[in-house]
Design a protein that fits this description.
The complex is a heterodimer of chains A (578) and B (223). Chain A has 578 residues and is an all-alpha fold. Helix content of chain A is 62%, strand content 1%. In chain A, helix 7 runs antiparallel to helix 8 and helix 8 packs antiparallel against helix 9. The longest helix of chain A has 35 residues. Chain B has a single domain, classed as Four Helix Bundle (Hemerythrin (Met), subunit A) (Up-down Bundle), CATH 1.20.120. Classes of the chains: A mainly alpha (578), B mainly alpha (223).
Chain lengths: 578, 223
């Protein structure tokens, strides 16, 4: 008892506003900080995409405040949309946001292993975000080189209006983001390995924790490589070195570099870039596994298979980077190896998909809003994933690579699928984070707007691609062979307007429910994991001085002989479950 | 695990607490080191790839190699010696603080710390050697500049500046860690904190030494 009191006292929360809400060491506050950073970023990124869609179908229209969007401005929009979405939304919210908030609670810990490093990782990420946004406001504007930053374009300040200071800020922001992500990965790995409560063996962890853990390992191994590439790029840009820039003329003059290799950047970038896809999607996979089990009232189908599938996706994710470079003229033997490895990732991905379906099969399904988004995630994962094996083959990738086919593919599987994971997580954990339920009717409207809108936007892009419509080009309305495709482009833009409008339902619901939502009980979804055993919202040290002891796995639903249809992980062992 | 040889002097609860903190700190350090290793693995990969790349000579319109072996200044080897010695002094400080944590209760009382002076001495010596190493590296840069090898002169000189500079930045982090470790001793922080901070600082320092030896071997033997 004395020990429990001391424990609680040791974690008494700070009272001042600055220490409690700004420079907080509490993983829950830091999780919320990451979440709200990502929320602002997703609306910025979405707004940029809307400007791009408008420009694509009405290239000469003059917009209020923006005027006419010039081709180079279109490329800036494209670059910043991709960068902000990939780094500051898809990497930040699922891992930094929900992972920070719920990993320690789900494994029964009072906080992350290194709270100060946790705080620093958020503030470094915040700084990276500010530096990235500042690129819009400097002379020349934001960079043009796309989120992949391919040199020589990204390495030559004179290559375009945004490639001067804007591109420097872009590289610095990415480097800062890497540092923040590495510190975060360090915390996630140490916390998972060292701070689990008694009885919480690795194979009793919820699949969300497994997903965050594997994502952290991926981040640790991948972001260091991007950081190194960023340093080399900065030196090429500012110190006159030639790591990535070959002998090249620009505006009729030699650029002053020689001997560098743009392909070297591509290898380093995609060695990071492909695992990054899994960094974005794995947390959503873990969450989806959690939700289909909770809302089907069934144990997850094949828990161990799910863990091993995630691990193999993580490992194989480091062996396939070359499939982003089939166009680069690589050896056919290398292309073949990358192609086979890429298609092999389909195996663990299929295991996961069938296990989700197996969990749903015969379940007493509750179609609450988190479950709707989880099912939506599975749908998008399948639809976006099925075009993966097409692009994994060099012979098909080469004609499709620079078309809208790829845009449709990665938006479905990496972009929106992961965003659906974020939505599902928000609806699922909102009651625990804010003590109230989100409005279910609005949530359903939001779901249907998002699901139908997503398919209406991105499925036609596959057809555009197959018809040979190139991506990244700012203006193609006057190109003869694409005339017949313009109605499809217009359709996509109109649907994008409606779908984006639908996101304001979510935004309204989020803030309205914080104040006026129905009060939530401590366990509104009748789930089994540890966050539902503690108060709502959780106290500063998560368990108010208690140290939870775990007796059960995370998915014991509908256990025969049990009075309720779920067994909390902390429930004492009974004859029925023993 | 030498650090725990003094474990018999700790009470049971104190020992558990120390072991827990030490395990966590070492694990965190190991994970962090892996992140740094990935940065240098990437540099190494770039080094090997860049070394083999041909470039077009516009005057003759032929492919030539622009990489040439750079003679490393002898001072680099002297600096390596400094860093190796600093690792020894760091290890002595680490062992000293481990040995001096005599009975927990007494050790937790701020004013009782038997080997305090010795630890501070070894730490100070490590810091001086570390700063001397950095100063030496700076001098190497000046020498290279004087010989006409600037950052952008050739890919081989670019890599020398890149690798020494990046290692230097990481070592500077180690010096800050040393100062913080020194503060835990100087300001008589509890025994646990001293042991943990000294321990991870020491392992980080040893890693920096090892990393430097690796970089030197790369520059010397893969020219």
């Amino acid at each position: 008892m004395v020990e429990a009191q001391a424990h609680a006292q040791a974690h008494a929360g700070p009272q001042g506003f600055i220490r409690k809400w700004v420079f907080s060491l509490d993983h829950k506050v830091i999780g919320l900080q990451y979440y709200f950073l990502a929320l602002t970023a997703v609306f910025v990124g979405m707004f940029l995409s809307l400007l791009m869609r408008i420009h694509l179908i009405w290239p000469s229209v003059s917009l209020p405040l923006f005027g006419e969007i010039k081709p180079e401005a279109y490329l800036s929009l494209l670059t910043m949309h991709g960068t902000i979405m990939v780094f500051f939304v898809l990497t930040t919210a699922p891992q930094g946001g929900f992972g920070n908030y719920f990993l320690p609670i789900q494994i029964g810990a009072a906080d992350m292993a290194f709270p100060v490093i946790n705080m620093l990782s958020f503030w470094v990420t915040f700084l990276a975000y500010m530096v990235m946004l500042s690129a819009f406001f400097v002379t020349g504007g934001a960079p043009l080189h796309g989120w992949t930053g391919y040199p020589p374009l990204s390495a030559l300040p004179s290559a375009g209006p945004g490639e001067a200071l804007g591109a420097d800020l872009w590289v610095i922001s990415i480097a800062l983001f890497c540092i923040g992500a590495l510190m975060s990965a360090l915390n996630f790995i140490t916390t998972t390995l060292d701070m689990r409560a008694r009885g919480m063996s690795l194979m009793r962890m919820p699949l969300t924790c497994w997903a965050w853990f594997i994502t952290a390992i991926l981040g640790l191994l991948a972001f260091g490589v991007l950081l190194a590439a960023g340093i080399l790029l900065l030196l090429d840009r500012n110190a006159g070195t030639s790591f990535f820039v070959p002998l090249v003329t620009i505006n009729g003059q030699l650029a002053g570099h020689k001997g560098g290799s743009p392909l070297l950047w591509q290898h380093l970038f995609w060695f990071f870039g492909h695992p990054e896809v899994y960094i974005a999607i794995l947390p959503a996979m873990g969450l989806c596994s959690q939700l289909v089990s909770v809302f089907s009232r069934k144990p997850i189908f094949g828990y161990k298979a799910m863990v091993y599938a995630m691990l193999s996706i993580g490992i194989m994710g480091f062996m396939v980077w070359g499939h982003h470079m089939f166009m680069s003229g690589m050896s056919p033997y290398s292309g073949f190896a990358f192609s086979v490895m890429t298609m092999a990732i389909g195996v663990p991905s299929a295991i996961k998909t069938f296990n989700w379906l197996g969990t749903l099969w015969g379940g007493k399904i509750r179609f609450s809003s988190p479950m709707l988004f989880a099912i939506g995630f599975v749908s998008l994962f399948v639809s976006g994933g099925i075009s993966g094996p097409f692009l994994a083959q060099p012979v098909l990738d080469i004609p499709l690579h620079d078309t809208y086919f790829v845009t449709g593919h990665f938006h479905l599987i990496m972009g929106v699928a992961s965003i659906f994971g974020i939505f599902a997580a928000t609806y699922y954990w909102f009651p625990k984070m804010f003590g109230r339920l989100m409005n279910e009717r609005l949530a359903r409207w939001h779901f249907w707007f998002s699901l139908v809108g997503t398919y209406a936007i991105f499925m036609p892009m596959h057809y555009l691609g197959m018809a040979g419509h190139p991506r990244r080009y700012s203006e193609l309305t006057e190109v003869g062979y694409l005339h017949n495709l313009l109605p499809l482009q217009k359709f996509i833009t109109y649907v994008a307007f409606i779908t984006i409008a639908g996101q304001f339902i979510f935004l309204f619901n989020l803030f309205w429910s914080m104040k006026f939502g129905k009060k939530a009980s401590d366990n509104p979804w009748e789930a089994t994991t540890l966050e539902w055993t503690t108060a709502t919202p959780p106290p500063h040290d998560n368990f108010a001085g208690r140290t939870p002891v775990i007796h059960h796995g995370p998915y014991e639903y509908s256990v025969p002989g049990e009075p309720r249809d779920f067994v909390m992980q902390t429930d004492p062992l009974t004859v029925a479950v023993r | 695990m030498t650090i725990l040889t003094s474990a018999e002097n700790f009470s049971h609860a104190g020992l558990q607490q120390l072991e827990m903190r030490l395990r966590r700190a070492r694990l965190g350090l190991g994970v962090g080191v892996l992140g740094i290793v990935m940065v240098f693995v990437s540099f190494t990969s770039a080094y090997i790839v860049r070394q083999g790349l041909p470039t077009l000579d516009p005057r003759t319109n032929t492919l030539i190699r622009d990489w040439f072996p750079l003679p490393l200044p002898a001072l680099l080897f002297f600096n390596t010696g400094l860093l190796l010695v600093s690792s020894v002094t760091m290890e002595l400080a680490r062992r000293q603080v481990a040995r001096s944590t005599t009975p927990t209760r007494a050790a937790s009382i701020p004013n009782v710390f038997a080997g305090r002076e010795g630890t501070i001495l070894w730490l100070a010596l490590t810091a001086v050697l570390g700063v001397s190493f950095l100063k030496g590296q700076w001098t190497v840069w000046r020498e290279m500049e004087a010989s006409g090898f600037y950052v952008a002169s050739s890919p081989s000189s670019s890599f020398v500046y890149l690798l020494t500079g990046t290692h230097g930045v990481h070592l500077l982090g180690g010096i800050f860690a040393l100062l913080s470790a020194g503060a835990t001793v100087l300001f008589r922080r509890p025994a646990e904190s001293r042991v943990v901070v000294l321990d991870v600082t020491a392992w980080y320092w040893h890693f920096m030494t090892l990393l430097w030896v690796y970089i030197l071997c790369l520059l010397e033997f893969a020219r």
